[in-house]
């Protein structure tokens, strides 16, 4: 017990140290003062430089790999969009793993802090226990058989030990258990930190791939830069005149060529679906419900938006902090839901549709409006960046923008008092906000509600 307590106590009293080559081997011969430090510093710098070189080489190799992948998709929109959706899903999976690892790490760190505080408060007891054990080890009480003449001393020692030993044993075992737990926690924290570093690295690579894929997608649209810039300028001018979202949508689709073409395409898709048989409609719904079976080459919504109830995924990973119909901070009720996301989260289109507006608007931050057909619109607000152009067709799950880091406050974030990015999601039918809850899949709602 003495050796165990003393060994474990050394973990508590000793300052944390990093084991390195310099600690494992002693110098072969004495060196002048300061010479050893200079050599160690030079070796550390050389090691850091090599680490940077290795990182740069890995980044360059990853970049070439991504470029080769995109080159293979150059004239194949279906593969490009499929790769985009796949990259978004992998990033979402990585974010979920990172959140879980961070949560475990926070719990372990909290437990370590609690044990350290407990040990700190019992530092005096620990010192007394160790001192008593050391004294007993150096000068044990006499054994009656070994020294039969010293019977009185042996009896007194036995009485004293009988009174003190149970309490001493209890304190020693409690301290030893705490110290063992501390050692175990430190090892677990080190493992979780290593896992977190690997997950962050994997996410970084996926984000680099996604950025390159987005750039390739937008380049493949084929619109002339001058025409696109002119359309964006006109869209911003129209947005400045709009008094509300309904007015904004109306102005865009009546006065902007690209938005008007998108609205026409949405109407044509509605008319084409109206000619389908019920059997064809049911088959299309089955394929849409099974994400891997969705056709990434399509240029029109797979099914009517009204038929997509219970099949859509939220546009970003996060936690719902405001629901449709809840009391708002302005005296009314919420017309959409507010989703607290991770910093720089990727935002995807919840449904198939045509981009009716893309850009900054009032206190909404970067705003996206998707024409889902049959009078339905999906509004996404609070983004830091949008990656799609007005008139562009997007698929459900296709990346359309990115959230910020939470420093730029939108009206929704200010009203809630959120410190993290907040994505506002609103569904509209014929100009009126409607409850989006029936459209989300059950698994999606269980996930965000924890």
UniProtKB/TrEMBL annotation:
Gene3D superfamilies: Glucose Permease (Domain IIA). This is Peptidoglycan DD-metalloendopeptidase family protein. Residues 334-436 form the M23ase beta-sheet core domain. Its cofactor is Zn(2+). Residues 1-19 form the signal peptide. The keyword Zinc applies. It holds the Pfam family Peptidase_M23. Keywords: Coiled coil, Hydrolase, Metal-binding, Metalloprotease, Protease, Signal, Zinc. Residues 19-45 are annotated as: Disordered. It comes from the Bacteria. SUPFAM superfamilies: Duplicated hybrid motif. Residues 49-104, 193-287 form a coiled coil.
């Amino acid at each position: 017990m003495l050796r165990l307590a003393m060994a474990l106590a050394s973990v508590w009293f000793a300052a944390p140290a990093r084991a390195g080559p310099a600690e494992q081997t002693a110098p072969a011969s004495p060196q002048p003062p300061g010479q050893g430090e200079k050599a160690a510093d030079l070796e550390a710098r050389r090691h850091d430089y090599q680490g940077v070189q290795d990182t740069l080489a890995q980044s360059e190799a990853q970049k070439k790999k991504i470029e080769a992948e995109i080159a293979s998709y150059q004239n194949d929109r279906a593969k490009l969009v499929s790769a985009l959706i796949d990259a978004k899903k992998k990033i979402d999976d990585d974010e979920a793993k990172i959140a879980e690892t961070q949560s475990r790490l926070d719990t372990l760190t909290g437990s370590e802090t609690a044990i350290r505080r407990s040990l700190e408060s019992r530092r005096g007891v620990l010192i007394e226990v160790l001192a008593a054990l050391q004294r007993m080890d150096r000068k044990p009480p006499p054994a009656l058989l070994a020294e039969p003449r010293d019977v009185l001393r042996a009896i007194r020692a036995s009485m004293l030990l009988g009174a003190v030993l149970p309490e001493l044993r209890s304190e020693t075992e409690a301290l030893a258990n705490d110290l063992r737990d501390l050692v175990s926690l430190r090892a677990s924290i080190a493992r979780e930190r290593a896992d977190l570093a690997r997950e962050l690295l994997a996410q970084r690579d996926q984000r680099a791939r996604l950025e390159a894929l987005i750039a390739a997608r937008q380049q493949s649209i084929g619109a002339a830069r001058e025409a696109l810039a002119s359309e964006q300028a006109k869209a911003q001018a129209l947005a400045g005149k709009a008094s509300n979202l309904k007015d904004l949508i109306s102005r865009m689709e009546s006065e902007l060529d690209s938005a008007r073409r998108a609205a026409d395409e949405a109407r044509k898709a509605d008319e084409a679906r109206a000619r389908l048989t019920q059997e064809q409609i049911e088959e299309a719904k089955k394929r849409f419900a099974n994400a891997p079976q969705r056709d990434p080459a399509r240029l029109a919504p797979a099914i009517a938006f009204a038929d997509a109830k219970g099949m859509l995924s939220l546009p970003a990973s996060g936690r719902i902090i405001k629901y449709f119909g809840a009391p708002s901070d302005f005296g009314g009720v919420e017309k959409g839901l507010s989703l607290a996301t991770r910093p720089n989260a990727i935002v995807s289109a919840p449904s198939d549709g045509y981009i009716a507006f893309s850009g900054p608007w009032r206190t909404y931050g970067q705003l996206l409006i998707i024409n889902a057909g049959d009078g339905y619109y999906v509004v996404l607000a609070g983004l830091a960046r949008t990656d799609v152009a007005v008139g562009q067709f997007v698929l459900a799950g296709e990346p359309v923008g990115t959230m910020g880091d939470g420093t730029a406050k939108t009206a929704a974030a200010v009203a809630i008092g959120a410190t993290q990015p907040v994505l506002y999601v609103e569904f509209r039918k014929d100009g009126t906000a409607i409850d989006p809850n029936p459209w989300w899949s059950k698994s999606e709602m269980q996930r965000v509600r924890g």
